[in-house]
Specification:
The chain is an alpha/beta fold. The chain has a domain of 266 residues: Amidase signature (AS) domain (Amidase signature (AS) enzymes), CATH 3.90.1300. Helices cover 38% and strands 12% of the residues. It contains 15 helices and eleven strands. The chain has an eleven-stranded mixed sheet, sandwiched between helices. The longest helix has 22 residues. The protein is globular. The C terminus is likely disordered.
Amino acid sequence: MSDPADLTIAAAGAKLRSGELSSVDLTEAVLERARMSESHLHAYLTLDQTGAREKATAADAALAAGDDRGPLHGIPIALKDNMCTKGIETTASSQILAGWIPPYDATVVSRLQAAGSVLVGKTNLDEFAMGSSTENSAYGATRNPWNTDTVPGGSSGGSAAAVATGSALAALGSDTGGSIRQPAALCGVVGVKPTYGLVSRYGLIAFASSLDQIGPFTRSVEDSAVLLEAIAGHDIHDATSIRGEIPNFRGSLHHGVAGLKIGVIKELSGPEIDPEVRTSVSKMHDALADAGAEVTEVSLPSCEYGLSAYYLIAPAECSANLARFDGVRFGLRSEGATTEEMMAATRAEGFGPEVIRRILLGTYALSAGYYDAFYGQAQRVRTLIRQQFAAAYEGVDVLVAPTSPTTAFEIGAKTDDPIAMYYADVCTIPINLTGDPGASIPIGLDSADLPIGYQVMAPSLGEERMFQVAQAVEDIANFTARAPLATSEVVSP
């Protein structure tokens, strides 16, 4: 049998139920892959080997007793370290939360446990999810398994790298401006941002509350549908979570694209996109047309203002959300002669440069005399973007674009140029502002053997159609390449 760490959720589940594989064996294979790769990648902040083995043993016993909890039963899954885990350190990759152990689980964690999954550990991220490269972590950068001189994307780079290299069969990340889809593209895996409110944010350490959304990283579109079905649904602890039954996302996977209308976003197809990315994405447009879809260009001029609006709205919300980290209730507390001095010292020492930059931007945008000119205007642009996307969906079933304007860039290449780094999210930010769902699917490699991602977007609660088209893209691309650090050629450090 091939290495179990290379299996999809669907394939592993079949072997678990046939008796060909146990959850213990599967978990050991994943932990061994982590042992082989972590010194190269640093995908994890916490690897819970003891807890994972205990949960795998319990999963096998339950399955043997006839207690099958569904497709995630016994499957090793990783969590981005901005999701609260009872009894396990949760830092959001910040010094200000070093050593903090939550007294409760995030709702998504509870739902994964109820589904019988095995928690492998907590993955690295840009501090408080603020970044596009996972270089902003207070605990060191994560590297891309395809080329360790390059970034894995961000902010959920640890989750993407773990799935790409096989140290987890799947992972959860959070997407505020592209933080699931962009690293998925750069690491050659599938990443899904659900409709805002489809997945509870309870227990997610907030960055920008009107934008944050939790979603899956997997090796296949089907696996993402499985994982999303498990974590989606209304939660009484989250007032923004959507009521109603969760559709069977897997039911639409293999319906093809014949007769569907697919809109190519003109503003995300120009010369600002890397030529190799643009060529690969264009070929997929043509292949979808050959498969029976009606592919047409759609103009959404407001996309050009998405980046500017986002970098006013998100910092404004983060400046409010991060006010709670003051040294009083939890986390780091620095010395100070007065309470005010202690708070100032704690925040200066606990937050990294990018977090401080965004707090300052947000505080300024919300300040008296500037609120209407900056934050208020950004919200009006957000409304315009929502209106234009809604109008576009009256004529097409889905919209498509590159996921990232480039493939993975070298570590350190953009750290001194925040604007260049922010531009890495230009293709993903618009649907965070609208709240619509989107998926990134790997479709090929560039000349440097780095993955290229293709983004499929759908109207709010349009996940079934999104998955339908995403599956067709996956079938056409037939992307079977694996990252070098996910092969048996890896030499144990």
